[in-house]
Write a structure and sequence with these properties.
Shape: rod-shaped
Radius of gyration: 27 Å
Number of helices: 2
Helix content: over 70%
Order of helices and strands: HH
Oligomer: single chain
Distance between the termini: 32 Å
Length: about 110
């Protein structure tokens, strides 16, 4: 009888752990999906900003009085775009790291 109770307790414990692991995986997947949606939206925002800046530079270049003005506008745009690209890549990298930590946290919390 005592042996049956130990087996039953062990099976209950294993079932509870498996249920907890499944719930943790589900929570992790949900957080990963939410993070992916946020990153996608941010990438679209960045693309929109880049396009807006490119059109603004083209408008300015069209209004320039001479080739030197066009070259200056182009130079300024390229410098600004390079900095914007670095900033945008950094932002997306930070988002990816944060969402990675968030997605893994239900799994690591499960181990505790």
């Amino acid at each position: 009888m005592a042996n049956d109770k130990k087996i039953e307790d062990a099976m209950t414990s294993a079932t509870d752990r498996m249920r907890g692991a499944g719930e943790a995986m589900q929570a992790s997947g949900k957080k990963a999906a939410e993070g992916g949606a946020t990153i996608s939206a941010r990438l679209i925002d960045q693309a929109e900003t880049n396009a807006r800046q490119a059109f603004a530079a083209m408008r300015d270049a069209a209004k320039a009085n001479d080739i030197n003005g066009v070259m200056q506008i182009q130079s300024d745009y390229l410098r600004d775009q390079a900095q914007r690209s670095v900033d945008q890549a950094r932002e997306i990298g930070e988002l990816i790291m944060q969402f990675g930590r968030d997605a893994v946290s239900p799994l690591t919390d499960q181990k505790k």
